[in-house]
Design a protein that fits this description.
Belongs to the Dps family. The protein is mostly helical and 155 residues long. 74% of the residues lie in helices and 0% in strands.
């Protein structure tokens, strides 16, 4: 059955490709945040353990929303480490840094996801894809808030 929601096929493809990058960055950030939740230590352990848990749970829900939007646009959502590694712009943590480094990295990574999400807006606007624009707006707000909360622990 063909898809005809009023968004041309080429626009759906462009938007889905952009969302795939948002998905890859979001999933990489989810894994990194979950890793830091497990491995954080130091005087702020309890506060950071809880903050990281709150953030990775929010990301877990977000990746599902992003992938489902890609599917609703008629494309396949990437879902493997290999695919994500080719699409992501966030660096993975190769070790367990100290808590201040964790905070700094996660703040920067949330800002990276915000920039990735923001880069998809022109395609959604030209295609009048309000549903994707709404999803991206929600993601921007979540990542900008998360970055602020993480940065606040560094002051």
């Amino acid at each position: 059955m063909s898809l005809n929601t009023g968004i041309p096929a080429e626009d759906r493809k462009t938007i889905s490709e952009g969302l795939s990058k948002v998905l890859a960055d979001s999933y990489t950030l989810y894994l990194k945040t979950h890793n830091f939740h497990w491995n954080v230590s130091g005087p702020q352990f309890s506060a950071l353990h809880n903050l990281f848990e709150e953030q990775y749970k929010e990301l877990a829900a977000a990746v599902d929303e992003i992938a489902e939007r890609i599917r609703a646009l008629g494309h396949t959502a990437p879902g493997s480490y290999k695919a994500f590694s080719q699409l992501k712009s966030i660096e993975e943590a190769e070790d367990v840094p100290d808590s201040k480094t964790m905070l700094r990295q996660l703040a920067e990574d949330n800002e990276t996801v915000a920039r990735t999400a923001r880069s998809v807006f022109p395609a959604t606007e030209s295609a009048t894809d309000e549903a994707t624009a709404d999803l991206l707006t929600q993601r921007l707000a979540a990542h900008e808030k998360a970055a602020w909360m993480l940065r606040s622990h560094l002051e």
